[in-house]
Amino acid sequence: HMPLNIPPRFSSAMGGMAFLNANAQVPPNSKREDLFANEVLAGNVPEFMRSFVDVTSKVGNDTLIYYVLPDFLCIGANDDFAHIPLEPGTARKIADSLGCMLPTPKMAYQIWQSSSAKLTPSPNGPPYTGVQQLTSKLIESELRIKKQMSGIQLGSLVAGHKKDVVICKKLTTDASKVAIYGWWYPDGRKIQPLNAFSHDKFYKDYSHGIRLVSRAAKLNGQDCDLFEVLNSVHSELISDEGPYGAHGIYV
Fold first, then answer.
1. Using an 8 Å Cβ cutoff, are 214 and 52 in contact?
2. Are 90 and 204 in contact (CB under 8 A)?
3. What does the pLDDT look like over 176-227, one tens digit per residue?
4. How far apart are CA 143 and CA 53, in angstroms?
5. What is the largest CA-CA distance in the chain?
6. Helices in the chain by DSSP H: which ranges?
7. CA-CA distance, 143 to 121, in Å (whole number)?
């Protein structure tokens, strides 16, 4: 599969945690969104996040192979990276520009099942208010994730440390919310059932992860587009909700 089509990392690019610390006082608003998105699109992405890992789904006689980035979206370098939460609109903009999409809930679970490194969720704990959106809370969470990741081979498929920001059928008729799902413990219990009604589309806290999935996939050995699979008789391979309909994914 083709590598991620993103510019090479620029020589003056900051490491991920260094970047978070330098911007710790930036409020979690459109200014921070733009800061994070611009770093990604300019190529401040670690080397290990430029190659895809394959995930296989089988239903009946059909086999779908799709390709996901090994970790949730992060900025920085292999030796200093940081995962970044984003609003679904920003995540979609980045995904679209890279020929990718966000996972469905079923795909998020398949990715977790396929992961060779299943990390343990480590919530920040109360207060469960807007305070969890602050960059300082993201840094707190990242330091705990880093400890868990210390022995893991970069580039192997990792999951369990974030909730997935997902697409789901509800968003095809009402895109005013963010849909989140998952955050699995290694034993298969999950913290977050599918939720597409609690938070508006501008909400993003430290626990939200952006998993990019290449739209270019293989269905029964033939090249295909995952959006088309999602809207076809083969939707069951990646959807528990049936086909998403003629709108595709987004209103």
1. yes
2. no
3. 999 999 999 999 999 999 999 999 999 999 999 999 999 999 999 999 999 9
4. 25
5. 53
6. 16-22, 30-41, 88-97, 105-114, 135-149, 226-230
7. 13
In angstroms, rounded to a whole number, what is the distance separating the alpha carbons of residues 178 and 182?
Answer: 14
CA 155 to chain centre: 15
CA distance 98 to 41: 9
Pairwise CA distance, residues 48 & 174, whole Å = 35
Read off the pLDDT of each residue in 25-40 and give the average, rounded to a whole number: 96
In the chain, beta strands by DSSP E: 53-59, 62-68, 74-77, 80-83, 100-101, 117-118, 158-159, 163-166, 179-184, 190-195, 208-209, 213-214, 216-219, 222-225
In this structure, which amino acid lies at residue 130? G
Q: Please state, for a pLDDT cut of 90, what percent of the chain lies above it.
A: 92
CA distances from 26 to 34, 35, 197 (A): 11, 9, 27
Instruction: Show the CA angle centred on residue 178, arms to residues 174 and 180, nearest 5°.
Output: 120
CA dist 241 and 187 (Å) reads 25
Structure tokens at 157: 């498929």
pLDDT one-digit tens code per residue, 129-179: 889 999 999 999 999 999 999 999 999 999 999 999 999 999 988 889 999
